Amino acid sequence: MSATDSNAKPQDNDSGMAAKDPAKRRRALLIVVAVFVLAAVIWVLLWLFVFSTREKTDNAYVGGNQVAISAQVPGTVVAILADDTQRVEAGQVLVKLDNTDADVRLQQASSALAQAVRQVRQQTDSASSADAQVARAKVDLKKAQADLARRQPLIAEQAEAPEVVQHLRDGVDQAQAALDAAQAQAQAAHAAIEGTVVTNNPAVEQARANFRAAWIAAQRNSIYAPVTGYVAQRSVQLGNSVQPGQQLMTVVPLHDLWVDANFKENQLRHIRIGQPAKIESDVYGGSVEFHGKVIGLGAGTGSVFSLLPAQNATGNWIKVIQRVPVRIALDDKELDQHPLRVGLSTEVTVDITNDKGAMMAPQGSGQPIAQTDVYEQMTSKADVEAEKIIKANVRRGDAD
């Protein structure tokens, strides 16, 4: 082999490699382009079918009613029957106050009610006695008139002295005056009881109302739980002198809870009343998913209702994206299986596929959103106790 041939081979190899490198580069470029195109397609599909159909925020917290328990009458605490974290039922006694003074006033009101019933009975008897006096006066008048009529013809025959006849006439006038006085006395006696029986007499009704007030005041020395829930923020201690309206503890019902999700203002465009939502709470680490629905949007941003609202008219103004609370109702059955606590952090995802609903909540139905009958039961028991006192002091037949 000559030197010329040996030099020719390397040149052929170099030209072949040079021919192959552009093809590799084109294939690599196509692969990169294909990856970017595929990523773009995937992103578009995700946006169309996932991201554009939901709004998501982790600025969301569990909310609930916090029922403040306060005293209704002044007094000194003698017993505390519930403590923080304990469950209490509606109508359960939470705190007891010293009821010495209230018991005295209740006994006075009870005696006054019994006395009122007996006074009405006495007035009824007096009216009956007055009626008897009227009947007697009528008999006396009739007798006097009969005597006068019998002696009147004897004057014409001069068989009777004029003084006797005049005396008879005076007797008739006296009998008539006695009848008029008896009728007036009977009317006065009937004025206090006319149109009523013992149980609905005004005096008895007034005494009954005073007894009810004293009975309820005595019962208010026992402070009841108006709802079923869990005790929190107990501040009352034995021996405390409490005043009406003073908060002693809080009862939190953990059954009817909601989530306040604070969405950015640019996320509210498609959020509507009734849209379904999924909620994950940090307390369960994402292993439990709660389901709810949007029931309302706040009437303003959080900054407006804050303790110190932002002064946006100042010279050093900086635009900050505001958030609006969106209230989401939770499923009570899911709460029973996986309890939540007020204030827990959550992550909320609202399905905005159907955005044809209303943005503003409708007018309320007028029905109470929360209600308790604990205090109504107290009033009913007061009526029962008053009826017992009345029946014990009324005669059979007087109440009809």
UniProtKB/TrEMBL annotation:
Q: Which residues are in the Multidrug export protein EmrA/FarA alpha-helical hairpin domain?
A: 100-220
Q: Which domain of life is it from?
A: Bacteria
Q: Which InterPro entries match?
A: AaeA-lik-b-barrel, EmrA/FarA_HH, MFP
List GO BP terms, alphabetically.
bile acid and bile salt transport; response to antibiotic; xenobiotic detoxification by transmembrane export across the plasma membrane
Q: What is its main location?
A: membrane
Q: Where in the cell is it found?
A: Cell inner membrane
The record places domain p-hydroxybenzoic acid efflux pump subunit AaeA-like beta-barrel at: 258-350
What topology in the membrane does the UniProt record assign? Single-pass membrane protein
Name residues in a coiled coil.
Answer: 127-192
Its Gene Ontology cellular component terms are:
plasma membrane
Task: Enumerate the transmembrane spans.
Answer: 28-50
Identify the keywords attached in UniProt to this record, alphabetized. Answer: Cell inner membrane, Cell membrane, Coiled coil, Membrane, Transmembrane, Transmembrane helix, Transport
By sequence similarity, the record places it as follows:
Belongs to the membrane fusion protein (MFP) (TC 8.A.1) family.
How is this protein named in the record?
EmrA/EmrK family multidrug efflux transporter periplasmic adaptor subunit
Q: What is the lineage of its organism?
A: Bacteria, Pseudomonadati, Pseudomonadota, Gammaproteobacteria, Lysobacterales
